[in-house]
Specification:
Shape: globular
Organism: Rouxiella chamberiensis
Pfam family, one: CT_A_B
Helix content: 10-25%
Protein name: Biotin-dependent carboxyltransferase family protein
Number of helices: 5
Keywords: ATP-binding, Hydrolase, Nucleotide-binding
InterPro entries: CT_A_B, Cyclophilin-like_dom_sf, PxpC
Strand content: 25-35%
Structural class: alpha+beta
Radius of gyration: 20 Å
Length: about 325
């Protein structure tokens, strides 16, 4: 068991999110960086989608109330167990009474704290993720607060520590870059915008504004202009869809996106790059790279192959 000592209300319990509920008006929720979530779980021998604590603001501090193994993923800042500095993407053992502090990363926006078997909270509609908009799931349907206590699903499970992996950023992205390339597919209303706007969408850098959160990333750049005024009925949307409101400044739907909206759909971030988008903090800039369906599928398969490779390597380390 752990007790939260320092956090913000934006910290929450998340897994890979709810599937099959959009037709009921229930959004997906889930980790903003699903790649880090899965890798951290593999480190501990958890199911890839086990629930973890998603940490978006720092410093974050917990106290262990009993002996427990843990791992921290998605972060390259200082991670301290009492006064001992731990490597990122690493399995360690805490003793009862010890304090874990996760400090801000140099480049990434979020970290994940993983416990053996996952964080033990009730499953709601097939997921343990916190749905902040609907106030259900996770820990009492809300963000975490000082004094909250969370249990590991398998706290006594024997665990080999000092097992880790190289940061996946070295393989998939350079998060130190001031402008991050994000691959997207053109969407339904792409051709409803002027030729100049379509060209500008790919050529300019877009700033992620401070008004961005788990619901959506609001972008700032030279506005996109439609060929004519569009009035659309609300229709289904999913995380990754890039919509354009009347002011011409795009909004990227993120993990807590509502399941429907009426703004035109200009493009969609490919599934394999959603993790990257979730790790880019407000104030940084992105540039959209057009790709086709085959390229998007290849990128997804490459990411899944990497997860399988890491899983195999970690199992071999445990057996050594």
């Amino acid at each position: 068991m752990i007790e939260i000592e320092k956090t913000t209300a934006l910290t929450s319990v998340q897994d890979l999110g709810r599937s099959g509920c959009l037709n009921y008006g229930v959004g997906r929720a889930g980790a903003m960086d699903p790649l880090a979530l899965q890798l951290g779980n593999l480190l501990l021998g958890n199911a890839p989608g086990a629930a973890a604590v998603e940490i978006p603001l720092f410093p974050f501090r917990v106290r262990f109330l009993e002996d427990c193994a843990f791992a921290v993923s998605g972060n390259d800042g200082d991670i301290l167990l009492d006064d001992e500095v731990l490597p990122p993407w690493w399995v360690a053992q805490a003793r009862a009474g010890q304090t874990l502090t996760v400090n801000a990363s140099r480049y990434s926006a979020r970290a994940y704290l993983h416990l053996p078997g996952g964080v033990d909270v009730p499953e709601v509609l097939g997921s343990r993720s916190t749905q902040l908009r609907g106030a259900f799931g996770g820990f009492e349907g809300r963000g975490l607060q000082k004094g909250d206590r969370l249990r590991a699903a398998e706290p006594a499970r024997a665990m080999k520590t000092d097992v880790g992996i190289a940061s996946p950023w070295l393989r998939f992205a350079d998060l130190s870059s001031q402008v991050q390339p994000v691959r997207v597919l053109p969407a339904g209303e792409h051709l409803a915008y002027t030729a100049d706007s379509r060209a500008r969408f790919w050529q300019q850098d877009w700033k992620i504004t401070p008004q961005s959160n788990r619901y959506g990333y609001r972008l700032e750049g030279e506005p996109l202009v439609a060929r004519q005024t569009m009035e659309m009925r609300s229709h289904g949307i999913v995380p990754g869809v890039i919509q354009v409101p009347h002011n011409g400044q795009p909004i990227i739907q993120m993990s807590d996106a509502q399941p429907s909206g009426g703004y035109p759909k200009f493009a969609t971030v490919i599934e394999a790059d959603l993790w990257l988008l979730g790790q880019i903090p407000p104030g940084r800039r992105i540039r959209f790279i057009e790709c086709n369906f085959e390229q998007a599928r290849e990128a997804w398969h490459a990411q899944q192959a990497y997860l399988q490779q890491v899983d195999k390597q970690i199992k071999q380390l445990r057996q050594a």
